[in-house]
Amino acid sequence: MLLEMARLPALSAGARQRQQIAAAGANKFMALASISDIQRAIHGWRERHETVAVEFSERVNPEIKCPDDYLVTYEASFKSLDLEKLQLFLYATKDSFVGIGVETRERVATRAGARSRRPGYAAGHEPGPMSIEQLIALLDAASDGRISLLPRIGIFGLKDVAAILTADEHNVLPAFDTSLHWRWLRVETEKNLDVAVLRFKRW
Question: What per-residue confidence (pLDDT) applies to 168?
């Protein structure tokens, strides 16, 4: 079951406007998907990949309390009991915007040897325009263990978490430099990565 979307970073009015512009402009070369397209794409991806290490689940028209004016019509999750297998949560709105949740704060805190004083995703993005090409690339990056997490620990426990791709890997995500939907990912060179970075195994 997905965590409340209120736990994802909120978008300002300006960011929402830029997101709408991105849907009509920056992403015009990659058609936005319908809900059925999104579901078929995820099913097709699973048929081409063996993911015995993670458990897949999905729900159509789930009852989720939204903190904003969008309605979730589909959600999918890839979960594992193994803390070194990245958990990924996806949900789509009636407008065919896709939201992303990466790992949970509790699991990251446990692995980092700290406490998490609140629940929620470790990283992610509120619903935004996303093409099927981008969706498949995200699934590939997550399942291949390319996404790493850098937790910041304070005196009271886990403060925040940055999702990271190396400079050599960010090109696997279409329109990475122009799409606002990737803004939750940070690009770092391998030599700049802190020893505290949490890396993940392939699914």
Answer: 73
